[in-house]
Amino acid sequence: MEYKTEQKNAVLCFLKQNCEHHFTASQIVQALKTNQNAPGKSSVYRIISNLVKQGKVKRFESNSENSFVYQYAHLSDSCENHYHLKCTDCGKLIHMECEHLSDVCRHIASEHGFVVGTGKSVIYGQCKECLKEKQI
Amino acid sequence: MEYKTEQKNAVLCFLKQNCEHHFTASQIVQALKTNQNAPGKSSVYRIISNLVKQGKVKRFESNSENSFVYQYAHLSDSCENHYHLKCTDCGKLIHMECEHLSDVCRHIASEHGFVVGTGKSVIYGQCKECLKEKQI
DNA sequence: TTGCGTGCAAAGGTTTTGCATGGCA
DNA sequence: TGCCATGCAAAACCTTTGCACGCAA
Question: Structural domains in chain A?
Answer without folding.
Answer: 6-72 (1.10.10.10), 79-135 (3.30.1490.190)
